[in-house]
Amino acid sequence: MKNGNIIHVKNLTKTFGDFTAVDNISFQVGKGEVFGFLGANGAGKTTAMKMLIGISKPSSGEAQVAGFDVKSQAEKVKRSIGYMSQRFSLYNDLTIRENITFFGGIYGLKKSDIKTKSQNLIDELDLHDEADKLVGSLPLGWKQKVAFSVSLLHDPQIIFLDEPTGGVDPITRRKFWEMIYREAHKGKTIFVTTHYMDEAEYCDRVSIMVAGKIEALDTPKNLKEKYKVESMNQVFLKLARNIE
Ligand SMILES: Nc1ncnc2c1ncn2[C@@H]1O[C@H](COP(=O)(O)OP(=O)(O)OP(=O)(O)O)[C@@H](O)[C@H]1O
């Protein structure tokens, strides 16, 4: 583990009535780690992630994220993390520049900081010709790139990515992962859910959730050895299919 752990989860559980969506999960994530959070549809990933980012109260168990308790210090958790999802990211009817300004404001940045960060981001992503175009007019891969950068505006320690690369081709996804690695090398912790098993191979460690429980958690290499298969896709199929 690099430089200690930054996410601690112990016996975390979420029930909706009689139904247990997240069932007593425990794990830790290291600082600077790229942690893959996998599971079939409905396995409980989003419900677990919502508890970790402080927007849903656990039914029982506990979690600390960036040193803060998700139940009693949810606001501090929110300020320490970035969040990007396929479903919730940028506003299509605002330009790139307007989106940056808007989210900079949401994250509580000063006007002068927003201006500087906005220009840095446009320079870094080489978006000079697109900065004043509506986000809705951009290809999906570009939107994802910008959304990822926007989630970093307030310099969070941890970035939660909920299926960030859905719907784009493998080359665009690969490029997106290069951005993820760059941030991890700078010490950011990446917590990512994905349905793409090639992306699972890129993670330092992967957890696989089945019906609310974590059924496996290890490096891709160890998981493949343990299940005596060649790819993470086969590991996933073995686990998800065997139990369902
Ligand atoms: N607010 C809610 N009330 C009742 N049941 C819920 C609620 N939110 C989620 N669930 C149920 O909890 C289970 C886990 O859902 P969740 O969205 O966490 O799964 P997931 O692993 O993120 O799936 P997907 O990959 O499809 O996003 C599902 O059966 C879902 O129907």
UniProtKB/TrEMBL annotation:
Membrane topology reported for the UniProt record: Multi-pass membrane protein
One Pfam family cited in the UniProt record for this chain: ABC_tran
Entry GO MF terms: ATP binding; ATP hydrolysis activity
A GO cellular-component term linked to this record: membrane
Subcellular location: Membrane
InterPro entries for the chain: AAA+_ATPase, ABC_transporter-like_ATP-bd, P-loop_NTPase
SMART domains reported for this sequence: AAA
UniProt keyword list: ATP-binding, Membrane, Nucleotide-binding, Transmembrane, Transmembrane helix, Transport
The keyword Nucleotide-binding is assigned to this record: yes
Keyword DNA damage: no
Domain ABC transporter stretches: 7-236
Name of the molecule in the record: ABC-2 type transport system ATP-binding protein
